[in-house]
Amino acid sequence: MKKIYLLLLALPLLLSSCLFDDDDKFDESASERMTQTLLDIQEVLESAQNGWLVEYYPNKDQIYGGYNLFMNFSGGNKVVVASEKGSANQTIESMYDLVPDNGPTLSFNTYNDFIHYFSEPMNKDDIGPDDSGMGGDYEFMVLEATPEKVTLLGKKTRNKIYMTPIASENWADQMEEYISAADKFDEFTNFAYTVNGIEATVKKSYRFLTFTYAGGNDEVSTQEIPYRVVPTGISFYTPITIGGAEVHSMDFKMQGDDRIFTDTGGSNAILKVMPPPPINELFVERTWYMALSGFSQQSNWLLIKTLIMPGLGKPLNWICLSPYEPGIAGFYYNVGGETGLVTFTWDTVDEDKVTIALEGRANNAGITYWQTYFFSYLARPFNGKTFTITEVDSYYNPKEVLLVDVDDPTNTIRFTTKVVSDPFNN
Q1: Three-class secondary structure of residue 156 per DSSP
Q2: Same domain, 211 and 349
Q3: DSSP code of 295?
C-alpha cells in the first residue's frame, strides 16, 4: 500500500514534465480544438457549391421511412432548404448554428417549416401522435464532414443522416424528380419479394416495409426495412438481408404489365408490386373522418349542431369510423377533449360495397353523448345501410372515398383519412 501511495505522489511530477515538453502535441486547449473543429465543419458545409442532398429519417424506429431534403449553407449561418414535402420550386431560408454540446453539433435553431415538419409535436399532415408528431430531429451531432460526405447523428433519435453534394444548381428540376417518384411509389401498398428461391409477402406503412417469409425450422421470419424514394426507385436505410442477398437499393421498371423493383447490386432479388385488395377490404382497414359538408343529407347533423351543441358548451373536435376489432368499427367522437365510443359492424359485400350497422358496445362517454345528447342522430345517415364505395382517389392507397347508399342514391357520404377538425363547420 505504501508503494502505491508513493507512486501516486510521483504522478504529478511525471505529468508536469509531459505537459511542458517542447514536443507536446496538445498545446491547444480542448475548447480551442473544438472551436477549430466547428470552423472546419462550417467550411465543409459551405463548400458544396450546389448544396447538399440530405437523406432524412425521422423517428427513432424509422417507422415513417425517409425523406429527401436539399440544403445550401452560406455565410452568416444561413441555410436554404427545399423538401419533397413542398413544391419543386419552393425554398425556405432560416438560420443554423454549430455548437460544442457533447461533440460538434449542427442545430437548426430557428424555425424552418421543411425541417421542423418532422419534429413538431403536432405534424401538419396529422402523421404520428399529437404530442410528438413524426418524432424527428433538428439537432444533429456531426460524425464526419468531408467535401464528399457529411454524416450526422440525430441527437434524439440516434438515426444516421447522410449528406452528399448535389450535382446541379437547378434544384427545381431535381426536386420535381423526387416528388414525382414519391407520388408514384407511395401509391403502392402490397408487394411480393423473391430472392434465391425464397418468397416473402411485403406490407407497407408510410415508407416502412415489413417482409414476412418462411425461416428455418418452419418458423416465420420478418424483417422491417425503412426506405426513401429516389428518382430511379427506392433506397433502404438498412439493407434487406434475405436468402443470402444484401440489397441496399432497387430500381423501378415495367416488366410487361408488371411493376417491379430490381436490385441495383445485381442479385436476382425482385420486389413486385401486387394488385391492391378489393376497395371495401381497404376501406375497413382504415380510419375515416367525416364532416357536415361531406353528407348530402345533412338534416340530422344540423339538428345536433343547432339544438344540442350550443347548450352543451363544448366543441365537436373530430368524429370518425375506425377499426376496433375484426369486422367491428369504432364510431368515435371527441367532444371538448373527451372521446366517446360506440361500436358498429362494417361488413364487406361483393368487392365495392360495405354494410354499416350498430353493434352497440360503448364506453361511458359514448353512452352519455349517444343517449343524453342524441349523438345517435349523427349516425343515422349510415346506420343499417349498405353503400357502394365510389370516387376513390387511389385504388392502391385510398385517402378519400364517396359512399353511395344502395337503396337511396341521394344519400351519399364523403370520408377522408385526413383528420377533419371542427366537423360541424367543415
Answers
A1: coil
A2: no
A3: B
